[in-house]
Amino acid sequence: MIHLTRLSGQTFVLNAEMIQEIEATPDTIVTLNTGQKIMVKEPVDAVRDAVINYKRTILGGFNPPEGD
Questions:
Q1: How far apart are CA 39 and CA 42, in angstroms?
Q2: Eight-class DSSP state of 17
Q3: Which residues lie below 8 Å from residue 37, measured CB to CB, with a gap of 6+?
Q4: CA distance 31 to 22
């Protein structure tokens, strides 16, 4: 789960597994795999970093094997 802020200033927690796409238009739009779109205050890079940190936490520091 990641913490985000709607344009109205309301904070909410989003299941990062539901994110299909993040884009800047210039506002940041998070598209969920349900098709729902949510506009947030955080820039694309901040949302991406939050998702990466969430995944690292879930995987518990798991490092996948390097490719051959």
A1: 9
A2: G
A3: 29, 30, 31
A4: 6
Closest C-alpha to 30, from 8, 9, 53, 2: 2
Query: What token pair was written down for 30?
Result: 């998070």
Closest to 24 measured CA to CA, from 2, 48, 3, 60: 48
Query: pTM score, two decimals?
Result: 0.82
Predicted pLDDT of residue 34: 97
pLDDT, mean of residues 15-41? 97
Place of tokens 């506009």: 39
| Mean per-residue pLDDT of the chain | 92
* Contact call for residues 20 and 36 (beta carbons, < 8 A): no
At 11, which amino acid appears? T
